[in-house]
Structure prediction request, 475 residues.
Amino acid sequence: MGESASVQFPSDSTSATAREVLAEALRKADPVGARAVEHETAWRHGYLHHFTRAVEAGIGDPTAARAIATDGLTALRDRMRFGDLPLSRAVSDAPLQQMLKTRTVRGTAEPETTLSVPYRGERLEGDALLAQLDDWVGRGIVTTSFADSIRTVMDHPEWLRLEGDTVVVLGAGAEMGPMRSLQRWGADVVALDLPNEAVQERLVEAAQAGAGTTYLPDRIVTQSSTDTGADLLHDLPAVAEWLDTLSGRLVVGNYCYADGGDHVRVSMAADALAAHLLAERPTTALAYLATPTDVFVVDEEEIAQADAAYRRRSITRTVRTPLRVASRGRLLQRNYAPEATIAVCDALVPQQGPNYALAKRVQRWRATDARAGGTLVSLNVAPSTRTRSVLKNKALAAAYAGAHRFGVEVFEPATSNTLMAAMLVHDLRVDLPALDEPWQEEHRGAAHGGLWTAAYHPRSALGLAAVLGIGALRG
Prediction:
């Protein structure tokens, strides 16, 4: 194994790996679907249907849903490599290329003892935050269970410090990550991000300005611009060894993002780390944020709201029929059949691509598999958010700017990450009852931003939202 060992795909074709993995995931639950994946010749566009089918095949059959998750994870872990080794053996068998020690930074502020959420230029707390939660529920922006969870945290501000837990934030500098909220609340945090001087300076500044204790990895074998930080893709064995030295219960949260196939690579590195810690420290908890631009099962509440929205969408009712005729039915398709009791919201966005879909699906598969084994998992759907990674895609930026015309609210990063940090606190402190099916676990506590309750199938309105949003962006 050379000095450059890192998490890699088995070949140069990320598409080939993704097809093989999704086919293996479906093999038991949906053999016909597995064959369809194997024979897909236009993966860059055809993947949308297959990722949807991988959710549909588990509806009403929790055993099948869990098999899809477990088999998909196994297939990808067996294929991904760390140098000359299978990824599954990276932590146990790979020689250390790096060694890490702990750098401790203690915050200088007093911990916040009330949950407050930044929103549209204000900080909402108390009655104002309760009123906003009611408004979001009423407009179909969040689920009732999400609002109930936030209210519960408001009633128990002593939970905010997460005393006794250490939250390992992978991708600590991510806009959607919980690190800054947890630091304000006085929690203990491990901040893990790339060994980049600018990134690490921001992390240290945030830690000093907070109220909690932050642990960072200091590199003993330095091969970068700074002595602090770690690259999961290359330093996976060293990170695992270092985290093994920390005391108390660890909560490992994956908030990493990268472009293209690197997103799958870093998601699998984080997954290998989670698998190691679960084996060595069974009390470890896991945390993820699911994207609303994926495929989820919804129930009567969302279907009824979508049906009502379809009947009242005044901005498009007058042009809906001619648009549908002109587009041969592709535009403004009804989101769900109004009489359905459960349905599938397929909000996959082609512009984000199949690697993004696979990276996020891996996290959902791990959550499903870990829950089945008795692990505490916090996985919540976060709302569409104006992060830098999204806005650099001009088509998505335009669609986000016009999304409100279709009943979808796009959040600012500060609002999203504070709300989702509060949801993490809730999940770590409330003994939630197990639900019958994996899709119900994913549905609980979701802040989907209105995609689940929209009048129209998301992709059938995406182009129009972008057209309507271009003017707003120029303004």
User: Anything to note?
Assistant: The longest strand covers residues 100-106. The mean pLDDT is 93. The radius of gyration is 22 Å. The chain has two domains: 7-95, 100-295+353-383+424-442.
